[in-house]
Structure formats: C-alpha cells, structure tokens
C-alpha cells in the first residue's frame, strides 16, 4: 500500500506540472471564445459602421477618376437596391405591426400610452424647434452671407412651388382619411393651384388663384397609420370573431420581420455604395463649406445638442436608467439612417434591434415606432427652424416675437406631415417661409447642402422615436408590476378571509362533530365522511 500511495503522489505532482501550460491555454481559449462571441452578437453593428467608413474611403478614392453621371449611377446601384428592399417592407410592416399592436393592448392601455406618446412627440418637437431658433440667433448663420448667390451654389429649378399655409394643414387632415386604401399605398393628396382670369364689371382684369386637389406619387403613410390603428381597435372589440384576423396580422408581421432580418445582412454593402456615390456626386465641396459652413455647423450642432443631451436627459428623467447604454444597442439603425436619409427606410431595422438588443416589448415597439416614424420629426424641426432663421438673416429681416412664435408652431405642426423620405423636410420649409412672409427663392441654397444636414436630421428623428419607445416600455412594465402587486394583495386577503370563515362556520363545526361521532362508531363511515 505504501508503494501505491507514493506512485499516486508522483502522478499528482506530474499532473500539477502539466496543468500550468494547459490552464494558460484554456484561459487564452476562453478569451478567444469571448471575443468571437462578442463579434457574433455585434456582427451587424461592426459591419454597418465598417460600411460607412469603407463608403467614405471608396468615394474619396473614386472622386479623382472624374466619372460620368452614368458611371456614378452604376456605382450607386447596390445602394439603390438596399433602399428599394427597405421601402418594399415598409407597407406590410407598418400596417401589420400597428394592427397587431393596437389589438394586443386593451383600450385603456392604448388610450394611456397613446396620450403619453403624443405628449412626448409634441413636447420634444417643440423643444427642438426652440433650440434651433435660439442657436440661429446666437450663431447667426445668415449674417453677412448676402453674397451667397454665387454660381454653382444654388440648385436651379429645384425650389418647390409655394403653397398656402391653410391648404397645407387641410391636406394633412385629408391625408388622414384616404378615399382609397389601395391608392394610399403609393399616392398622397396634395393641393395645387390653377390661375383663372376674371373680368370685373369696371373692365379690370384680375387673376384668381383657385386650389385644385391632385394625387402625387408617394405613400400616404399618415392615412395608413390611422386606418391600421382603428382596425386593430375594432378587431379587439369583436372579441372571439376577430381573433382569426388578429392571428393573421400577427403571422404576417412575424414573417415580415424575418424578411427584415435577411435584408439587414445586405445593409453594410448598400451603405458603402450609398455613401461612396454621394461623395463622388459632390461638385465643389470647398465652395459649399466656405459659403454655407456656418449654416451647416449650426444645424449639426443643434442635432448634436438635442440628440446627445436633451433626449437622453428626458429618457433618464422618466426611467432613471442609462440612456447611452440603451442607444448603444441601436448603432445599426443609426448607421442605416445616416446612409439612407430616410426614417421610413430605417423603421424595419429599428424595430428588429430595439426588440432584440434592448428587450422592448413587441406590443410597445410595433405600436409606437411606426407612428413615431410618421409623426415625430425632432431633427426635421431643428433643420426647418434653422433654415427659416438663416433665410431671414440672409434677407436682412429682423424677426419679431410674433414671427418667432409662428415659426415654432408651424415647424412643430408641419413636421408631423413631413414625409419620411430624403429631402422630405425641404418642402415643409416653404410652408414656414410663407407663414412668416419670407421669399422661397433662397430654398435652392438649403437644397444644395440638404444631403449633408439630412443625415444628422434622420439620425435624430429615429433616436427620438427609439427613446420614446423605451420610455413607454418602462412605464408599461411599471404599470404591469403595480397590477400584479395589487392582485397578490387581493389574493392574500381572500385567503385570510376564507380561513376565518372556515373557522367560524357552523356547517364546518357540524361536519367535524359528525366525523367525531362516526369515528368512534365505525372506521368505514369515517372514511366516507372524509
């Protein structure tokens, strides 16, 4: 036995010597596995950011090759494919997610969450408008810039036709109630004007501008959102009869999200060619930056303050949670927003990432994000107000308090109807300029730099939607916990009451007495009583 123990000790010692390098190797393997796991979890984020960087490098490299417009179009083709794929899933995603979201929430929760969301959207948009006007007066981007009408700066023929403010808001209301749901998928209502010649009795000839309704190309997302919401509430109201249709929309929604997850893997390639082709398209960036640099700087600074400080502070005040950790899970949608300049095109990736990375309830995200992509335009409000102040300073017009108030209200209201497409906000600037009586001729200057400012505009737009969904999710969870606590308390009280009733009930005592008497008489009868 002694020799066996000695052999065992020698074996242990040998194993101890061998375990040193093995343990080190195991530690290295664990680190490698951890790194691999991180890359697997965040592969899309890394690829999306790499796509933006590669796009800038590609654009800078190809810029010197003096490509023809046709060659630039070929370079942009992979990016165009990404935009087409994202737009393809917008319609089923918006309609199905809103129907299933509205049907899954009870009417009281729907009303409460809808009210909070509306207050959040209006409040943040008003804050954004106020911030932009304040920055416009501090930085004064249009002061001393009257020599901006240099050749090569403006975009001739790109200025939208001016529209009366009243007609703009009436169009907004008309689009809420589309006459044809199928047509609303690809057309939207817009007012145009027809000039009629009128002869008066005194012989004078006058021209009269008459509004005429027309259908223009573009999805009427507002009408579809309202219809989907009301349909969801109606299906919930039907109860048993509406369950089959609710299940259909839920399945359709899940299938669309699977399509989105496949499209997401193409996003980095599309982003690279979108950014690269846009850099190649730029004509004279030096002239643009030197002439409109203050306006570009003021707009991007406004977006940075609102998106980096104000919105996270609102999120922190509402939830007492770290907003930057929440935003870290949404880098892929932000990269998509930066590249596509379209909040509608970013919606599919935003819904996927906010549910998977941040754990937001599907009912909340699919209810609030499609509405936010249509209604909440914080970045657009900053861009529009800054443009209005810039054009006023450009024309040496001192804005009075009444005009400033008009800018704030009009920007907040018109950003609701702004299309979630590239350069969608430029059309609403014309409404603001008309409302405060400024000329719309200088809008071509805004269009010239829109492709730069529109990127940060879209990022702030989608960030506002995401943080709104996070706040609503937190409030909903808090409400659910409160209800569960109340239910527990009610159950505890019920159990306590039943015990006390059992102890004092004459029937129970009577039964006990019966069982007691029978137990002495007959064990079989005792069992039957029990």
UniProtKB/TrEMBL annotation:
A Gene Ontology MF term for this entry? symporter activity
> What protein name does the entry list?
Amino acid transporter
**Which keywords appear in this protein's UniProt record, sorted alphabetically?**
Acetylation, Glycoprotein, Membrane, Phosphoprotein, Symport, Transmembrane, Transmembrane helix, Transport
GO biological process assignments: L-glutamate transmembrane transport
Gene Ontology cellular-component terms for this entry are:
melanosome; plasma membrane
Localization recorded for this chain is:
Melanosome; Membrane
- Name the Gene3D superfamilies on file: Sodium:dicarboxylate symporter
Q: Where is the composition biased (Low complexity)?
A: 16-25
Record membrane topology: Multi-pass membrane protein
PANTHER family cross-referenced by the UniProt entry: NEUTRAL AMINO ACID TRANSPORTER A, SODIUM/DICARBOXYLATE SYMPORTER-RELATED
Q: Where is the composition biased (Polar residues)?
A: 506-522
Q: For the region Disordered, what residue ranges are annotated?
A: 1-27, 495-530
State which residue ranges cross the membrane. 43-65, 85-105, 117-139, 218-235, 255-275, 295-318, 324-347, 367-392, 404-433
Q: Its family?
A: Belongs to the dicarboxylate/amino acid:cation symporter (DAACS) (TC 2.A.23) family.
Q: Which Pfam families match?
A: SDF
The answer on whether this UniProt entry bears the keyword Transmembrane helix reads yes
Can the keyword Acetylation be found in this entry's annotation?
yes
């Amino acid at each position: 036995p002694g020799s066996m123990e000695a052999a065992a000790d020698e074996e242990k010692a040998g194993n101890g010597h061998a375990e040193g390098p093995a343990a080190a190797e195991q530690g290295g393997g664990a680190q490698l596995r951890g790194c691999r796991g991180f890359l697997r979890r965040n592969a899309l984020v890394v690829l999306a950011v790499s796509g933006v960087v590669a796009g800038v490098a590609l654009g800078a490299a190809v810029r010197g090759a003096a490509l023809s417009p046709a060659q630039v179009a070929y370079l942009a083709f992979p990016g165009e494919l990404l935009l087409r794929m994202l737009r393809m899933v917008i319609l089923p995603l918006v309609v199905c997610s809103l129907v299933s979201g509205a049907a899954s929430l009870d009417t009281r929760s729907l009303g409460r969450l809808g009210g909070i969301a509306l207050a959040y959207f209006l409040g943040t948009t008003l804050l954004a408008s106020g911030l932009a006007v304040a920055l416009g007066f501090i930085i004064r981007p249009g002061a001393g810039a009257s020599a901006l009408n240099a050749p090569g700066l403006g975009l001739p023929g790109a200025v939208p036709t001016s529209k009366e403010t009243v007609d703009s808001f009436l169009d907004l209301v008309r689009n809420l109630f589309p006459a044809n749901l199928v047509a609303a998928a690809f057309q939207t209502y817009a007012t145009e004007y027809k000039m009629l010649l009128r002869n008066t009795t005194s012989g004078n000839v006058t021209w009269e501008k008459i509004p005429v309704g027309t259908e223009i190309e573009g999805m009427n997302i507002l009408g579809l959102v309202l219809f989907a919401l009301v349909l969801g509430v109606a299906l919930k109201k039907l109860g048993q009869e509406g369950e089959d249709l609710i299940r259909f929309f839920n399945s359709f929604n899940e299938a669309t999200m699977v399509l989105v997850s496949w499209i997401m893997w193409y996003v980095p390639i599309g982003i690279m060619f979108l950014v690269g082709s846009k850099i190649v398209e730029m004509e004279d960036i030096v002239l643009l930056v030197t002439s409109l640099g203050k306006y570009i700087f003021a707009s991007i600074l406004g977006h940075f303050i609102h998106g980096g400080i104000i919105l996270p502070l609102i999120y922190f005040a509402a939830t007492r949670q770290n907003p930057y950790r929440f935003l870290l899970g949404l880098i892929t949608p932000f990269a998509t927003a930066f590249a596509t300049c379209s909040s509608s095109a970013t919606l599919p990736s935003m819904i996927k990432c906010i549910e998977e990375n941040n754990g937001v309830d599907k009912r909340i995200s699919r209810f609030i994000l499609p509405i936010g992509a249509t209604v909440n335009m914080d970045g657009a409000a900053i861009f529009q107000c800054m443009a209005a102040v810039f054009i006023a300073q450009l024309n040496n017009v001192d804005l009075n308090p009444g005009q400033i108030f008009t800018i704030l209200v009009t920007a907040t209201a018109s950003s609701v109807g702004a299309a979630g497409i590239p350069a969608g906000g430029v059309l609403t600037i014309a409404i603001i300029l008309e409302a405060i009586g400024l000329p719309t001729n200088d809008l071509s200057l805004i269009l010239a730099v829109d492709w730069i400012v529109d990127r940060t505009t879209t990022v702030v737009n989608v960030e506002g939607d995401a943080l709104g969904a996070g706040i609503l999710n937190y409030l909903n969870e808090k409400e659910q916990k409160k209800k569960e606590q109340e239910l527990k308390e009610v159950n505890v009280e019920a159990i306590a009451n039943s015990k006390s009733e059992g102890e004092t009930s004459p029937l129970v005592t009577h039964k006990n007495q019966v069982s007691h008497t029978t137990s002495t008489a007959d064990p079989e009868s005792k069992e039957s009583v029990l």
